[in-house]
Structures are given as structure tokens and as C-alpha cells.
Amino acid sequence: MEIDIDTIGEEIGLFEAIRTTRAIRRIKPDPVPPELIRKVCEAGTFAPSGGNRQPWFFIAVTDADKRAHIAKLYRQTFSRYIEPARKAAEDPAYQDAKRRNMNAAIWLAEHLHEVPVHLFVAGWTRRGRPQSQALLPAIQNILLACRAVGLGASLTTSHGAHQREIDDMLGLSEETPSIALIPIGWPIGKYGKPPRRSVDECLFFERYQERKADQDLPPPQ
After folding, report:
1. DSSP state at residue 199
2. Does 173 fall in a domain?
3. Rounded CA gap, 33 and 180, in Å?
């Protein structure tokens, strides 16, 4: 049965999407239709931007050789980043949720070359700096759109240590640097509501009131 790309995902409610858009790092190698990548990137273009400058660019890398090279550079940075967590996880008291998150991140690093779409978000600089106030909302829109159409995705910046080399490969200049990589594909597993502390613990009216240091909080996701 042919899928109507234009309408897929349109029926999901906004708050349902927001509450269930968690990072999906385990992704199948199956290809993703270019039309779906266009659809989620179009959602990114509806993010707000100061002066309606719309500084963003989206570069979808699907070529196997390019993905393999990106993954190789990514792993070089990731291996240094994850080592403290690996050592901490040897402690039996290490939180299970943190261990699950770490294992998912390791899985992504080890399989990144198999993820069918490496979506880079880049943008024009302003006064020598990326316009993050526009690019970050665009990224969130893309993540929400991936959730709506059934794609798995997550936000990572671990390519940053090799940004110049990767940006050169992508045809990006110092005036249009990449700020994020979103690996996208069909998920292994499913979306769901991540554990979050109650909004009543972090919402204040008029003035912030410090909470007790030993207050029980859910592990970070």
C-alpha cells in the first residue's frame, strides 16, 4: 500500500508528541524516503527566528561512504567522552536508567555508519557566532516531526571536535557552520514518556525558591 507522505503524522496531537518525543538512538539500517526527510525538515523551517532571518540549512547525508567517515570521526570523540561513564557504571550502585542511557549512546556510536540519514543542522553566523536562538527551535521541530511520522531521532553534537573537516565535506563554510547532527531512521523500540519530575517542582511564580539538596529527582534522560 502506498504511503501518503503529505498526511503521515498529521493526526498526532501536539501535547502527545511533546510528551513522548524521547531520544531514539537504536535505529534500523533500512532506508528512509527522501520525501519524509523533506517533511521533517519543513517542520524545522517553521521555527521562530529573530527578524524572520531563517538562518538554517539542513544537509541530509545518505551516502554510505560519507556516513562511514562521519561515524569514524564521531567515535573518536565519543570514546573520550563516554569513558568516565563507563567507569562509573562499574559501580553496582550506578543508576539503572543512567546505564540504559549510556548503553544506548554506545550503541549509536558503534552503529552510526548504519543509520540511514545523518541530518546536519547548520546556519548563517551573526557577528561571528551561530544563530542558536533560531537553530535550536528548528532542531526541536525536526525531532517532534520525526516522532509524528514514526522515525527515530536524537540530537548530538559529538561531531564538533571534527567540525571543520566534516563541514568541508558537506560544503559548509566558516560562515555557515554545522551545530548539530541528528541521526534519523526507523526506530528499534518505540517512543514513550520519559521519567520527568513534576512541573510543580520547577515552576515558580514571582520568585524562585530553592529546593532541598536531597530532594528525590528522576535520573536524567
Report:
1. G
2. yes
3. 22
Q: Which run of H or of E encompasses 197?
A: none
Of the ranges 76-85, 180-189, 202-211, the best mean pLDDT one: 180-189
Domain count, the chain: 1
Nearest CA to 32 out of 119, 105, 108, 104 is that of 119
Q: Residue 9 gets which letter from DSSP? A: T
Q: Alpha-carbon torsion 91, 93, 94, 97, what sign?
A: positive
Which CATH number covers residue 103? 3.40.109.10
- Which structural domain range is residue 127 located in? 14-201
The pair phi, psi for residue 61, each rounded to 5°, is -100, 120
In a domain, 8, yes or no: no
- 183, 9 in Cβ contact below 8 A? no
Q: What's the mean pLDDT in 138-147? A: 98
Residues 68-87 have a mean pLDDT of: 86
The pLDDT, as a whole number, for residue 216 is: 54
Which pTM was predicted?
A: 0.88
Check residue 1 and give its pLDDT. Answer: 40
Contact 167, 178 (CB under 8 A): yes
Give the model confidence (pLDDT) of 86-134 as tens digits.
Answer: 777 777 777 777 788 888 999 999 999 999 999 999 999 998 899 999 9
The vertex-120 CA angle with 116 and 125, nearest 5°, equals 175
Count, residues in the chain? 221
Q: How far apart are CA 32 and CA 119, in angstroms?
A: 12
C-alpha cell at 47: 521555527
